[in-house]
Amino acid sequence: MALSKQELREIAALVEKGAYVKRSTLYVAVGVALLAGLYAGNLLTTVFTHSQQAAVHQQAPAQQVPPQQTGQILDLEEYVQKHPEEHAAWVKLGHLYFDTNQPRPAIRAYEKALQIKPGDADVLTDLGVMYRRDHQHRRAVETFDQAIAADPSHEVSRFNKGIVLYHDLNKKEEAFAAWQDLLRLNPEARTPGGTPVRDMLRQLQGQ
Predict the structure, then answer these.
(1) Apex 52 CA angle, 50 and 53, nearest 5
(2) Residue 48 and residue 131: Cα distance in Å, rounded?
(3) How far is CA 191 from CA 54, 136, 165, in A?
(4) 135-171, pLDDT tens digit by residue?
(5) Predicted confidence (pLDDT) per residue in 77-96, tens digit
(6) What is the pLDDT averaged over residues 166-188?
(7) Bridge partners of residue 196, in order along the sequence
(8) Phi then psi for 170, rounded to 5 degrees?
(9) How far apart are CA 108 and CA 175, in angstroms?
(10) pTM of this prediction?
(11) Which region holds residue 170: left if phi is over 0, alpha if psi is between -120 and 50, else beta?
(12) Which residues contact 168 (CB under 8 A, 6 or more apart)?
């Protein structure tokens, strides 16, 4: 079902209040695939299997977008053309493209949002995930660094930076450093699957 006029008015109201339609910032897809099954004693080959599966998924054609989300996207595209300065609408549009596996239009929407409200660590992190999904790996790391600079307490950006460095750029020592920085910030940090980051790091360093 497409967005109603009332929902669009609510988006505009959020902007006037200085807020935006916020979602839980997601870990990069490979991190979820990799770490949901990573437990002490697993072989590194298991890690690579999960990573390869994620890479294959990302190279596949874009998934068919459900009619409800298609309608929401079309409504928001029309809305931002009429109201190009409304940060909340651009962020919501980016999230819809994110959730329907359309990285390039998501990147466009998030970049528009950041032009209006620079330094938003959550949006920067989602943008970094989309750069990664679009195989712009170095740019993804740069964007996670921007999120960290904007909010030094931002844990997800630090975690995601490590994932891209480790799996996409093969910079393992830099990845370990990113995760160690996360642990200095929060010694109890956990992966999306619930595994302590400390255990994950210890295992990977021991391979």
Answers:
(1) 65
(2) 21
(3) 17, 23, 16
(4) 999 999 999 999 999 999 999 999 999 999 999 999 9
(5) 999 999 999 999 999 999 99
(6) 96
(7) 190
(8) 55, 40
(9) 27
(10) 0.75
(11) left
(12) 30, 132, 137, 140
Mean per-residue pLDDT, 117-146:
97
What six digits make up the tokens of 126?
């989602």
The amino acid present at 190, given as its one-letter code, is R
SS (H, E, C) 36-101: CCCCCCCCHHHHHHHHHHHHHHHHCCCCCCCHHHHHHHHHHHHHHHHCCCCHHHHHHHHHHHHHCC
Integer angstrom CA distances of residue 172 from 11, 24, 39, 161: 42, 27, 19, 11
3-state secondary structure of 140: helix
